[in-house]
Please model this.
Amino acid sequence: MAAAAAAAAAAVGGPQPPQAELPAPGPGLDKAATAAHLKAALSRPDNRAGAEELQALLERVLSAERPLAAAADGEEAAAAGGGGGAGAAEEEALEWCKCLLAGGGGYDEFCAAVRAYDPAALCGLVWTANFVAYRCRTCGISPCMSLCAECFHQGDHTGHDFNMFRSQAGGACDCGDSNVMRESGFCKRHQIKSSSNIPCVPKDLLMMSEFVLPRFIFCLIQYLREGYNEPADVPSEKDLNKVLQLLEPQISFLEDLTKMGGAMRSVLTQVLTNQQNYKDLTSGLGENACAKKSHEKYLIALKSSGLTYPEDKLVYGIQEPSAGTSTLAVQGFSGATGTLGQLDSSDEEDQDGSQGLGKRKRVKLSSSTKDQSIMDVLKHKSFLEELLFWTIKYEFPQKMVTFLLNMLPDQEYKVAFTKTFVQHYAFIMKTLKKSHESDTMSNRIVHISVQLFSNEELARQVTEECQLLDIMVTVLLYMMESCLIKSELQDEENSLHVVVNCGEALLKNNTYWPLVSDFINILSHQSVAKRFLEDHGLLVTWMNFVSFFQGMNLNKRELNEHVEFESQTYYAAFAAELEACAQPMWGLLSHCKVRETQEYTRNVVRYCLEALQDWFDAINFVDEPAPNQVTFHLPLHRYYAMFLSKAVKCQELDLDSVLPDQEMLMKLMIHPLQIQASLAEIHSNMWVRNGLQIKGQAMTYVQSHFCNSMIDPDIYLLQVCASRLDPDYFISSVFERFKVVDLLTMASQHQNTVLDAEHERSMLEGALTFLVILLSLRLHLGMSDDEILRAEMVAQLCMNDRTHSSLLDLIPENPNPKSGIIPGSYSFESVLSAVADFKAPVFEPGGSMQQGMYTPKAEVWDQEFDPVMVILRTVYRRDVQSAMDRYTAFLKQSGKFPGNPWPPYKKRTPLHPSYKGLMRLLHCKTLHIVLFTLLYKILMDHQNLSEHVLCMVLYLIELGLENSTEEESDEEVSVCGPERCHDSWFPGSNLVSNMRHFINYVRVRVPETAPEVKRDSPASTSSDSLSSLQSSRRPKVLQRENSGTAQVFSLVAERRKKFQEIINRSSSEANQVVRPKTSSKWSAPGSAPQLTTAILEIKESILSLLIKLHHKLSGKQNSYYPPWLDDIEILIQPEIPKYNHGDGITAVERILLKAALQSRMNKRIIEEICRKVTPPVPPKKITAAEKKTLDKEERRQKARERQQKLLAEFASRQKSFMETAMDVDSPENDIPMEITTAEPQVSEAVYDCVICGQSGPSSEDRPTGLVVLLQASSVLGQCRDNIEPKKLPITEEEQIYPWDTCAAVHDVRLSLLQRYFKDSSCLLAVSIGWEGGVYVQTCGHTLHIDCHKSYMESLRNDQVLQGFSVDKGEFTCPLCRQFANSVLPCYPGSNVESNLWQRPSNKSIQDLIKEVEELQGRPGAFPVSISSETNLSKEMESVMKDIKNTTQKKYRDYSKTPGSPDNDFLFMYSVARTNLELELIHRGGNLCSGGASTAGKRSCLNQLFHVLALHMRLYSIDSEYNPWRKLTQLVEEVNSQQGNEEQQPEVPILYHDVTSLLLIQILMMPQPLRKDHFTCIVKVLFTLLYTQALVALSVKCSEEDRSAWKHTGALKKNTCDTEKSYEVLLSFVISELSKGKLYHEEGTQESAMVSPISWSPESMEKYLQDFCLPFLRITSLLQHHLFGEDLPSCQEEEEFSVLSSCLGLLPTFYQTEHPFISASCLDWPVPAFDIISQWCFEINSFTERHAEQGKALLIQEARWKLPHLLQLPENYNTIFQYYHRKTCSVCTKVPKDPAVCLVCGTFVCLKGLCCKQQSYCECVLHSQNCGAGTGIFLLINASVIIIIRGHRFCLWGSVYLDAHGEEDRDLRRGKPLYICKERYKVLEQQWISHTFDHINKRWGPHYNGL
Model:
């Protein structure tokens, strides 16, 4: 443990053991004795002598001279550290220290003794980045609370809201600390121990430590001083790291001391904080030259850091810079460098020449001396302080940080350290700014500070005693000052405002976050925040700080060309505002929740307004914002808005008491309104030349993490302004800001000077949408928190179904963690369950993994869907459309409305009384004029008006009707007051009465070309009136409407007048005349066509326009009929559901009904209007030019519709094709493969080529082929003999051994055979391919092989990056896009042949046997002779090559002689075996289901057989060796075998694998095969199989059973049909084998293994059947593929009999009444007993020599169950906890990315370089060894499964989901995960069916790097 300390000392001095008496003692002195001696000396009452002696000893041992001399010389230091003298010296010194501490005893015993006195009730375990820790929100008091895994698992957190996380900056365990977490969450170890039961520490135990440690720490400090060479430039990383490496052992020693527990920690605390010790040792006044030098270095370091070292007489914190030290300080402050006195930084910050600016600004900001002392004075009074100083200087080395933090459980130390930390705060900031590694350093700083400031008690204490708040705010202010630039907002030349430059590294790299996060952390404590809010000086400084961000990152609209360089600084700006301004604001707001805190709000609001006023002055703002520029950053406005909102909502403050005068309100609304207009401009593509980043800003502004600190306060502030300003002024401002004033005219043409025609429509939509949002949003106007949460949630769910985690992410939570709504809090879950239904994760056959989703309940769509909220919260416009589509679908589905609905109108929560004035906007004439004009224009079909515009107009009218206040009586009286020009439009300002007011004539200014000019004006204009706004996309024509008095009125002029009035009234400089700059907009027309005045006859009211609109929308005359005429009830009970959902017609009806409800007059007028048969709408006069454009539009529209139709048709065709051709998992709707569909009368099979589309037979010279995928597979090898799947090991004890897998067993068998028998014969006795067998699958599509070649060529030339490698022959099927890598040629020939061949012949079995033998003997008896090289035979060879190359050499070569033909022979028939076995597994391991199953339709076995047979025939077997002879003939000369001893014998026939024999026999026959030959072969082989079953049975049973059976069978031998009785045959087998030694060797251990089963005839019969079934299944499958016969389906128990009759083994006349006996299938070709005895003889002659092996080699009954992946535990945590700390077996390190194979449980490193072999990383290597190229790995740290297939890989997804059915990739959320059995089944299914390639879409190459 203390290994560390000794080394430490060593670094500082060689072995010069002390002892006064011996002048130069040898190094061999006994340390222990010395230590004991000294301890005794020191324990005496008078210990001065002892103390001196010890001092002398330590002086020598710890002398700092030698290594440092080396270090000082620079380079040799490395050598010294690396070994050599210094290294040894360090070791020695540390050894001394350990001995001395232990006082002569053993050091380990000493450690144990000290630990016994550990009273610590705190865990305090310190961890570094990437450590896995836990956080429980239920138990935490501070949001930063964290627990180590051990404490977490030992505490009880069931049902709590916790998560696991990977620490980013490092942290410490809080278990046992009741300041940070509730005691209920403590673990068993740290539940409070009372300190009484800990014994007192004996004095002498730690006595030596108290003497030794001060010297030791001083030595460390000297070392740090020496090592720090203040170079001219910033010290290089290398030097610092070198020093730190040398110090490693010392610091580790200290760290080990801290781990000894509380007793040792308190000694260390004493040492570190004792000021006297420090003074004595470090003053540098002694005569010791070394100490002097070190002190000087220290002073230099202080100076170079821009810090003064005050003389002692000056008390810290209040001194003026004295003559001696001031030079530095003063220079720093003159701003000479614009940075904080960092003289040594060689002005690196000044590249942008900001010096001058810095000077001017500095003067203003940094005049107070208090700041100066905070920034520049540092006095160290103890070791702790200087240690921290060096820790900072060396940029927070990890070891030092850990040591300092390990001490924290000591309370006294904690306080001292916190104060020290605060004292160095400014210095930390300076170092951080200069650091090259600011990221690492930031993490380390936060690692420390979060431990200190999360504790409220401590934070409060430091705030009171050390001015923590002042320090923090000042430091932040200074930090930002270094990167200020002049603001260009508004008045560029004269602006005095400075803002931060977002391009600076400080902001771009987020370097400020450690300081800001500390600030936010301390503001979360109520006591601290109160002090902040009470301190006026601090508030002023803080507002000063916030104003640096006001108006940063200004965007100027590019009007001519696209910007060359798109700056990405905007993200830095948004992050800075959120972190540095908004989060502290939320922190402060969380403490202003009750009435008593009113005073705080008043303070903030007051200083905020002052800062805003300063800002307006600084940027020279009068009344108009500068055009074409926008900043999204107005933190001062937002502070003001949020505190206002809080004041009204929680503190019951009177709003007017905190509002400024009208003029200020007018100024306040300008910039937020500018942002809203700019948003519309950006979405209208008016800013395209500024690049994509401007869209990014518009999105970020409304994005969920930012919206409640950005857009919400802005809208709220505008709502407040609107509720207090004159409504006409506000409305006209809005339309002017949105640049659509010119469009709002009655005339059909107009000019717009400020907007291109193509942008007009979307800007008008933007303006109206903004008004709707402004008037209907209630987020800050009276909604409760739960209502807000509900509204937010509904809006998000309406856009799309959401997962739980994305909802948490999308719903803007109050960013301060201590606020009420925390994600996952009770209210969140309860609201969620109220508004949404959970859809469990489902699996789609395409393999796309669904997550658990929440979808809105029906009643939410019905009542709560709020389009306004959706529009406000969408980042992408398409989400609004998505919400509307979902709404439409809901209405159709529930039968509420069939057509295309309009957004529904939603009732609002009541307004808070303070904001009632907002509704005056709806009742002002300006708005009514706009609404009237727009309705008229829509009715007259003017240009540029969309359905959306109409929708918003109706929405506004409806809002007005809902919120009307004045009563009927009021309506008749006209409002007196100054005549305003628009009074000629409407009499009053109430919408209800204005709706019925008829307007007869309007005078408009129009271009002379306009159609209106042609008309003659009527004699008198009865109602002189004029419209005032403008809209549309026509040429830029300027026009205004005039009244009879020709007084030009416009919104703009009206606004000007208002503004002027207010300014004069507030008597602020009346000389600020309206700037003429903007007046030009509405002065004389420029180059535009001359404007003339025309008078339009209108004669409409809003009501009449609405009724005509109804006719227009419904397309019928007189379609509107007032509903109350039929049903008077409707007026009493107005809430009628039928009006809730619908389109425009419904909306108009709803509005008319509401209008009638509100006033009798309106009701009467509506009835009147409906009575007049409405004249048709006057036809529009259309100019020729317009007609042209209209026709164009119409044509376009039609073309678009045609295109839509075509596309839809195409899509449906494609869909139906995909359904038939593709669907991997439901092949029921698949077309059976073309090959088998040919009709009997066609003589040749016809194939369609999917490339050229031609059909035709496959021929010799133009063969057709099947698209196939060849892949090596080890799935078969993974079968085990137990049903229960193996479990994934999750403890050290559980291990998986592959001994019992199918592959292993077959391997062992082959190598046994090869030991004793002839190689060539062995290779015919078994099959290989259990591991690395080649599986061939097809999608069923065919193509000409030459077409395929050209297709591959085109793929090769195609440069597009495909997911597959064309060079390896990979491609996708041109039709269904299924992955493939080869083409299997189709064998030419008719399909009917097989029908001829299938006719049963009546030849005897003996004849057939002869024929078979002859046919096998004839080489190449093929229609295609091999000698002639045809295209077909070439292709067959090339595909055979492909098949061989699919698997690795080790899976092909089993022969002892490499390259022997037997190898190829074995490989080829094994390919057939592999494919049959796999198909059997896909059918579930048996053939009970029958039918042509999935594989059948897509099977290519028929073609594969042809290719294999062709190649097998090349190797004809010698007729002597042909097993067929052994099966069908009796061999005469029995002795021939004994004759040649030296040669190895052949494999006895009973040891042969019968299925392999079957395949060999069939593939040796000329193809196509005749059915009766096939049956003959099967019959013959069945006799052998049955004999093997009998032998196996005889070995299985006990000696007694054997003799009994032998006896009973012998008795029956004479009865008839003995060859078909199993008893007789069994008895014969036993008697034959008894002649050999097979049964003898049964020692004790053998008999013990044989279980004493009592065999009944039934169980024997069952055994025999089970033994034969696998063979029958494979054979039936083979027959099914070769001859196309369907498989019968059956019950499991009758499978044997059904298959045997299907194969023709059962005689047809067989009766099925009495119980079925397997022996009845036997058909012996030669007398049974003879052939059996011949077979048994071979065995006997083998067992003579090798009885043991003879038994082992007997074929056992097939016991393989279906293959499975490993069984996974229920909870992911069990896997994670075991594997994420598990060390790699190769390099014994914990891997960075551990993974585990789900097939065999091997632990591997993903991408681990340590385990790389020949450039293959471990996962890739393992996938080849374990799965022949297919690997399935679970990535432990990500919970995701990764699939490796050959040279590609893909992420498959996760089989572990959280409680909400979601994956947690990379464990980011860290919630508990549970196995999803369905998903795991899908994974296993894909593995077994080899469909990874088809189902998973996202493949990429891994380049062997996984």
